[in-house]
Amino acid sequence: MTTDTGSFLSLDFSSGTGRTADDEAVEFYDKQLRRVTDEAIIRSIYKHSKNAPEGYVKSIYPGEGS
After folding, report:
1. Is the separation of the CB atoms in 6 and 30 below 8 Å?
2. Whole-angstrom distance between the N-terminal and C-terminal Cα of the chain?
């Protein structure tokens, strides 16, 4: 993902149940593959994202979604 503040790797994952707060998560990594944990930087990534991820990932569970 490229933003006005730089390039970041976005790891967006879900357990498939979507029932609790820990079932879905997004993590960001910088160019040195260090996890971004600073909330101000994370907010800036969301705010300045030019190519935000869209759509959904094919389910890893048989018979669910596409």
Report:
1. yes
2. 24
| pLDDT given for residue 53 in this prediction | 52
How far apart CA 31 and CA 14 sit, in angstroms, is 24
CA torsion 22→26→28→29, rounded to 10°? 70
Residues 6+ apart with CB under 8 A from 63: none
Taking the C-alpha atoms of residue 24 and residue 11, their distance in angstroms, rounded to an integer, is 11
CA distance 10 to 15: 17
Cβ pair 60, 42 in contact under 8 A: no
Per-residue pLDDT of 4-37, as tens digits, reads 778 899 888 777 666 666 677 788 999 999 999 9
12/19 Cα distance (integer angstroms): 16
